[in-house]
Structures are given as C-alpha cells and as structure tokens.
C-alpha cells in the first residue's frame, strides 16, 4: 500500500494548522497591544457642569434702566468694590433679612480678593455681574479699551465665580454710548443694566439721607444703585428694605426683575 499521498496530506495539514495558529496568536497580540496603547478604549470623563465659558457673542446690547412697573418688585444693585469688612457686613445683613442682591463687581477687586465671589454667592440668593475691570470713566475710553475692560472683568468673573454673569453695567457713565453697547454685545452681554433710583450713597451723605432718598423714589420695577464699601450704605440697608416692604414691593435680583429666572 502506498502511504506517500497520505503522509503528504498529513504534513500539509499540519503545516497549515501551525500557520493558522501563529497568525491567530499574532492577531490576538496586535489587539491586546492596541487596547493597551489606544486612549479611546478608556471611558471618557464626564463633562463639567460648571459654567466657565464666556457668553455667546451677539449684536449690540440693549440698555435698560428699570424693570416692569407692574412686577411689584425692585432690584437692589451694588457697585462691588472697596472695603471687604463693610462688604461682608452688607452680605450678612442681606442674608439675615433673606433679601437677594445683585453686585456688579469690579474685576480687579475680584482678582485682588479671590474669596469674595464665593462669599457673595454663598447663600444661593445673590447675583454677580460685570462692572468693568478697573472702573474707568468708560465713556471717555477708546473702543479697544472698552472691549478690554468688559472682557477682562468677564474673565475674572469666570475665574472666581465660575460664570461670566448675565449682565454688564458700565462705570462712570449713566447712559452707555453706542460703542459701549456694541462692545458689551460682542463680549456676550445682550443687556446693559442701568438704574433709575440713585441716592448718591458714594458721596457718603449718611445712612438717614441714603435711606430717605431711596424711599422717595421707590416704584415697581425700580433698579436701585448702591455701593459696597460705604458705611452709610450698610447702615441704610435695613431701613431701605423696610421701605420696600412697606410700599408693598419685594426685593429681587436683576435676573428675576428682568425675567431671566
């Protein structure tokens, strides 16, 4: 019996099996190396829920000085800068009275005092907004400087408050110029917020005068302009709140007054 064909088939089959085995081993090794080397195989980290990016740029901002008269609400707003102890005292009074306030913070004040943004926002009621970076007379500043003042404060807010804020208020000018409105919109702020009740508290006329001036001009939808860092303003805060409530009005943030919340 001729066994050569059978033997030949056996050897060919064994060789083919060995070749297949080696190829399979190499393929398995390649997949294992790819799984180890490729970062795509690891699960992606969960995205952060904090708001650290700038607002979406838009066209020129609109300017508002007050909210709806029928709202039955007023906004207590503060230009944020100055003495930290007085600012903390104001925050303590607002917390004790359960009264929300909106602070338009100066950017370099936030950078110099990096814990202040957290203090302002700690109880969840208050609101932070943009009031330029160095507080110049913004109406006298060239366009490039206006843009820098707005965006640098926006970025300071993002660093310290994890949000750029929803509102911008120019410094040193009551009614913004077209350039200010354009640059505010370009920086992502669709609304520039002014005020229609100004007791001139930064002139330090005394607590009684500040409180009386606010009371005399109270109305539904009012945006009241005050300043942190002034002792008379801190002392006037409770009487102002009492006058608001006695008039049948309620203090709210700018966001609530303008319908953003």
Indicate the topology.
Blueprint: H1 4-37, E1 62-64, E2 73-80, H2 84-96, E3 102-105, H3 107-112, H4 116-121, E4 127-130, H5 143-161, H6 178-186, E5 191-193, H7 207-216, E6 223-227, H8 231-246, E7 250-252, H9 254-257
Parallel strand pairs: 1-5, 2-3, 2-6, 2-7, 3-4
Description of the structure:
The chain is α/β, with parallel strands linked by helices and 261 residues long. The chain has 2 domains: 4-41; 62-257, Glycoside hydrolase/deacetylase (TIM Barrel, Alpha-Beta Barrel), CATH 3.20.20.370. 45% of the residues lie in helices and 11% in strands. The protein contains 9 helices and 7 strands; from the N terminus they run H-E-E-H-E-H-H-E-H-H-E-H-E-H-E-H. It has helices at residues 4-37, 84-96, 107-112, 116-121, 143-161, 178-186, 207-216, 231-246, 254-257, and strands at residues 62-64, 73-80, 102-105, 127-130, 191-193, 223-227, 250-252. Strands 2, 3, 4, 6 and 7 form a 5-stranded parallel β-sheet that branches. The chain has a two-stranded parallel sheet with strand order 1-5. Helix 2 (84-96) links the parallel strand 2 and strand 3 (102-105). Helix 2 runs parallel beside helix 8, helix 5 packs across helix 6 and helix 7 runs parallel beside helix 8 (231-246). The longest helix has 34 residues, at 4-37. The protein is globular, with a radius of gyration of 32 Å. It starts with a helix and ends with a helix. The model is unreliable at 1-52 (pLDDT under 50).
Strand elements, count: 7
- Structure class: alpha/beta
- First CA to last CA: what distance? 97 Å
What's the average pLDDT?
84
Per DSSP, what share of the residues sits in E-state strands of 2 or more residues?
A: 5-15%
CATH topology of the largest domain: TIM Barrel
Q: Tell the overall outline.
A: globular
- CATH H level, superfamily name of the largest domain: Glycoside hydrolase/deacetylase
CATH architecture of the largest domain: Alpha-Beta Barrel
Helicity level: 40-55%
Largest sheet: 5 strands, parallel
Give the H and E element order: HEEHEHHEHHEHEHEH
Tally of discrete structural domains: 2
SS field, number of helical segments = 9
